[in-house]
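Re: weekly structure request thread

Next one in the queue (95 aa):
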Amino acid sequence: MVSFTVRMEFREEDRQRVREYLQKLAAASRQEPGCVTYVPHFVEEGPPTMLIYEQYSDEAAVDHHRSSSHFAQYATDGLYKVMTSRKLERLEALA
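Done, posted below.
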């Protein structure tokens, strides 16, 4: 199992656009083979921030996700163009 979070900050004026990108990206990503969990969130405190919790069955599923047309459309050509910072954290499951 491969698990990670992606945290992105954005400008408040882009909140609705970020919401739309995340809703479309989540719907398409959840249909991918090997996608176990894909849950986007807005962080309630602090600067405008979103966090995605993702789980995939293996690295091949992660590679498939990142090479998909919907990732290109909603992440690369969408979210990445409005974000002001990005942090990816790989997670180690304990139980």
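Helices lie at 15-29, 59-66, 69-82. The first strand starts at residue 2 and ends at 10.
Next request, please.
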